[in-house]
Amino acid sequence: MATTCVLGAQWGDEGKARVVDLLADTADIVVRYQGGGNAGHTVVFEGQTYRLHLIPSGILRPHATCVVAHGVVVDCGTLLGEVDELRKRGVEVGANLVISDRAHVVMPWHKRLDVKREEMAGSRAHGTTGRGIGPCYADKVSYRGIRVGDLYDEEWFAERLRMNIEEKNRLLVDAYGGEPLEFEPIRDEYMRYAELIKPFVGDAVTLLLDAVDAGKNILFEGAQGVLLDVDLGSYPYVTGSNSCALGVPSGTGVPPRSLDRVIGVAKVYMTRVGTGPFPTEDEGEGGQRLRDAGHEYGTTTGRPRRCGWFDAVAMRYSVRSNGIDEVVLVKLDVLRGFPTIKVCTAYESPDGQRLDRMPATASELNRVVPVYEELPGFEEDVTGARVPADLPQNALDLLAFIEQQMGAPISQVSVGPSREQIVRMNGAS
Ligand code: IMP
Prior knowledge:
The chain has 429 residues and is α/β, with parallel strands linked by helices. The protein folds into three domains: 3-101 and 200-262, Adenylosuccinate Synthetase, Chain A, domain 1 (3-Layer(aba) Sandwich), CATH 3.40.440; 104-197, Adenylosuccinate Synthetase, subunit A, domain 2; 265-424, Alpha-Beta Complex (Adenylosuccinate Synthetase, Chain A, domain 3), CATH 3.90.170.10. The chain contains twelve helices and 20 strands. Strands 9-7-5-2-10-1-11-15-19-20 form a ten-stranded mixed beta sheet, with helices on both faces. α3 (108-121) crosses α4, α3 (108-121) runs parallel beside α5 and α5 crosses α6. It is globular. The relative contact order is 0.14. Bound molecules: inosinic acid. Inosinic acid is lined by residues 12-13, 38-40, 126-129, 131, 133-134, 223-224, 228, 237, 239-240, 273-274.
């Protein structure tokens, strides 16, 4: 396996955790490289369902070391809650979990600012998860951040805390009319967190560089999806990090050339949570049917997801900009019973021009009209399929069409939620 990155090729919620779980069998190290508690990764392991936000899905494998790298913003409360929950359920969490000392810490003002900004925006709200992600990354790049390692120098931490509280109170109180933050309770709370997370904190950069040199199998687990990437996504309706493959070197410290394989995970339709352009959204019966059949409700927030049709323009963009070597296409079973299945092959701009590339601005993307190819649907139950020959011809034709449109081979297709409901395509092992 060497170094493999599994990322979401759409707007998140593609079911990456299951792919990571399958690959984690042979991984020495599983790494989260960006995002934070906004992610919701559901893994079903030995009949039990685990919902993880920060800890890599590989934690369920006793042989794997799990790393929360510096590209991740760490919410200590969420992290410790996950550790407790896992331990209660008999999962070992100890030396197998390493939190980077360079990772930034989500502080109470990040969450409050996130929520206040959303409230102030009213109907123009971004639809964030309210986990303080954007404000924490904003502090990181404006030199205000507090990193995990800073928690272990009490004086330095207190100085950073004071400076932040002074600044953030102006915003929270004067601009947003909220309650002021108080120094002492926050200092005490974070000193307590520091003690509790200490056994896990380490130099993740050196650990990963040594692992690369030693030729270990490293699995990088992406959160969110390429179309939510702060640079490549539908800005400003994005998340605060590089959720594309670029996030791996910047978020972990491994050199860019050390990434051997990129796997993109995509649904055979599209979903999105929160605000922002979604050219193939179906707000009618079709979208509702996809939502019901696909159980499209958020893991982190429980919000109903917006649903629509497979967008090959967006997928081509994800494939090309991330060097995706293979696509794992999920939820084929959800399409059963649709008389026809739409695939968007191009966009049409308001002046009638045909576009087969992703526009840069959200306003442009909002205005395009999808050009669809309608393919015949299938009535057969595909949940028992395990090899391509088990799939109906119409499903195979749909997969071949999607593959040709997005410009990358499909290595696996999922036909149901459990581990074994996978059809390996193109001779993939
Ligand atoms: P934030 O990451 O909480 O700041 O939210 C920014 C945008 O990303 C919002 O539209 C969220 O709904 C979306 N988002 C964040 N995390 C996820 C995720 O794990 N899945 C899907 N959408 C997400």
